[in-house]
Amino acid sequence: MRQRVGLFLNTQSAEAIRWAEHGAQRLLERGFEVCLPAEFAPYMGRQLLSRLLVHPIAHVGDIADLILVFGGDGTMLAAAQQFLQSGIPLMGINVGKLGFLAEFGVHELEGALDALLHGTYRVVDRTVLEAEVRQKRFYALNEVVIEKHASPRMVRLRAHVNEHHIADYRADGLIVTTPTGSTAYSLSCGGPIIAPNARVLCLTPICPHMLTLRALVIPDDCRIRIEVLSDDGAVLVPDGQRQEPLAPGDSVTVHLAPYVLKLVKHAESSYFDLLRRKLLWAADAVPSP
User: Are 4-121+266-279 and 128-258 equal in CATH topology?
Assistant: First the structure.
């Protein structure tokens, strides 16, 4: 049976569209069937489109064996929101800037497609967060952020872990991050880099007005409850993909989701190779003699 590869792309980027068309053509030449979510059809050339299987995006997640994502890390997070519950692996082709989640560069596209053809790649599972508030559920691969909303003033939040009071925060916000998200927003706020297979979560305050409040690493089987104390309320932001307003007194519960996200990785490289390549981690600032 022929393998089916779905496409997902950043339609705001002409480069992402161009590379997605090129990738689709090269997949067809290698004997793959290529599935395209219907909302992306207007961005494909007519001749190429006639050779693709066009379906609603929910159906693509049911019939494809893998999703090829063209864009940057934001596009990868958007794809994660769409395909999380299908359990389908995502392979990111970076047409953005850093590309930490979209691990394969466009210069590696041919090799990446050959890896798909021959099965010479790794699939890793990444933990996902579930946030609940007012009987609504939100999911995040990187982080759940609770931050100030429509006010220049700091937000006041009270955090509990397994119903034990941790701290009251006066800050611009609070990040609950997975190991995957530890190199994203949390890192820019002084949080630690966490290896993706570590069974932990991290609470990282955003610009706290207290010298004693720093990032806190906890086991990932904990349930975190964050209460909004500010009269101005706050906003819940999962993976930067949407905003859910929070009223004073609202409580957000954050814990591991019953799903994992599957990411396609280079067969031979490690997480630490990626850190050195993308973040220049451990780069020696002293020139060699």
Answer: no
State pTM to two decimals.
Answer: 0.92
Task: Kindly state the tokens that stand for 259.
Answer: 């799903």
CB distance 224 to 256 below 8 Å: no
What is the CATH topology of the domain spanning 128-258?
Answer: Tumour Suppressor Smad4 (2.60.200)
Considering only CA atoms, which of 222, 7, 1 is closest in space to residue 129? 222
Question: What architecture is domain 4-121+266-279?
Answer: 3-Layer(aba) Sandwich (3.40)
* pLDDT value for 222: 97
Nearest alpha carbon to residue 143 among 126, 159, 161, 128: 128
Identify the segments of the chain with pLDDT beneath 50.
Answer: none
What three-state secondary structure class fits 12?
coil
Query: How much is the pLDDT for 281?
Result: 76
Q: What amino acid occupies position 78? A: A
Please identify every residue annotated as catalytic.
73
Q: Which ranges in the chain belong to alpha helices (H)? A: 14-29, 46-49, 57-63, 73-83, 109-118, 185-188, 271-279
Sign, Cα dihedral of 109, 115, 116, 122: negative
Task: Estimate the share of the chain in helix, then strand, then coil, as percent rounded to the nearest 5.
Answer: 25, 35, 35
Q: Residue 264 has what pLDDT?
A: 96
Return the pLDDT at 288: 60
